[in-house]
Specification:
alpha/beta; Nucleotidyltransferase, domain 5; 6-stranded mixed beta sheet; 5-stranded mixed beta sheet; 10 helices; about 25% strand
């Protein structure tokens, strides 16, 4: 009797990609074996977001070439996770997803590709991967992270029904747990603006102030080395203070939404690279928690959360 196909979760990001086998146990979901990762080293520079939104679907030649190269590399990574086993693939990625869920119309930190899932399926089949069914649709990375933190054995959102997940790396992703159901901010009623849509002063958005990749970029543009979290100078403190103020603003906006629905926001989980950076400074973390007026604040640096969450969402849809 042939073995059941294995789930492979894939998390595509602005700085790289991660993939792993994922399985469900008695105590929740977990990664089976190694988390496979690769970093983008192609020097790609994204088209400004306002231009992407003004001309959706009109990709540049650089985007087309870089996107195709990245798809090929992703296929090799996924095939390496599965070895010779039959696989089902679940995909998480950032950006504005196409209406059919198979591609990316706009992405602040990477090349757009409206046929991403179709191209990835073809690349996998071309290198001999045993894909039992095409990946159905892209799960927003913000939602995947929240699903992973809610469903994983050691997830930061285990045991709560109403919560906010803020994940930060190259950009900022947010999702809400509402009565145990995981939703993107655009799926709420009424919908909430996302960090990149909210002004943060000085012509920047809250995403610019909060995302570790953007904070680090501002630090390096100022001629500094290392990262601001490892520096106690005035400029480093100003960047970290602005980041924390941005996080507090995102939480307050979400709390107002929950209050409007007569729901209590139980927990805020700050995850991925952003969560790891906050956890390094217990005093600053405690000060931020004190500003949240009774809402529990936790951090998580579980890198595999979006990988797990992508599988959780895909498995729900095929069950």
């Amino acid at each position: 009797m042939d073995a059941a196909p294995e789930w492979i979760g894939l998390d595509v990001g602005g700085s790289g990609v991660r993939a792993a086998k994922v399985e469900r146990g008695e105590d929740g979901w977990s990664v089976l074996g190694e988390l496979h990762e690769l970093s983008w080293d192609d020097g790609f520079r994204p088209v400004p977001l306002d231009e992407q939104l003004a001309y959706p679907g009109q990709v540049t030649a650089e985007e087309e070439v870089c996107g195709a190269q990245r798809v090929a590399r992703i296929a090799e990574l996924v095939a390496g996770c599965a070895a010779s086993s039959a696989l089902r693939l679940a995909v998480a990625a950032p950006g504005l997803v196409t209406e059919d869920g198979a591609g990316i119309l706009a992405w602040r930190n990477g090349p757009r590709r409206s046929t991403f899932l179709v191209d990835l399926e073809r690349s996998l089949l071309a290198i001999g991967a045993s894909l039992v069914a095409p990946p159905a649709s892209i799960c927003p990375d913000s939602v995947a992270c929240a699903l992973g933190e809610h469903g994983a054995e050691s997830g930061a959102l285990r045991g709560v029904s109403n919560a906010l997940c803020i994940s930060g790396g190259s950009g900022v992703g947010e999702a809400a747990l509402v009565k145990g159901r995981c939703l993107g901010l655009d799926e709420l009623e009424p919908p909430l603006p996302r960090a990149w849509e909210i002004g943060g002063g000085d012509g920047r958005s809250l995403e610019d102030r909060v995302a570790p990749g953007r904070v680090l970029g501002a630090w390096h543009e100022a001629g500094k080395e290392g990262c601001p979290e490892d520096d106690d100078g005035e400029q480093a403190m100003a960047l970290c203070d602005a980041r924390d103020e941005g996080i507090a603003a995102l939480v307050e906006r979400a709390r107002s939404w929950f209050d409007g629905g007569a729901l209590a926001l139980e927990r805020v989980a700050v995850c991925q690279t952003l969560g790891g950076l906050l956890a390094r400074d217990p005093e600053r973390l405690a000060a931020l928690a004190a500003r949240l007026d009774g809402v529990e604040l936790v951090t998580s640096a579980m890198r595999a959360a979006p990988v797990i969450g992508a599988v959780v969402r895909a498995e729900e849809r095929v069950s």
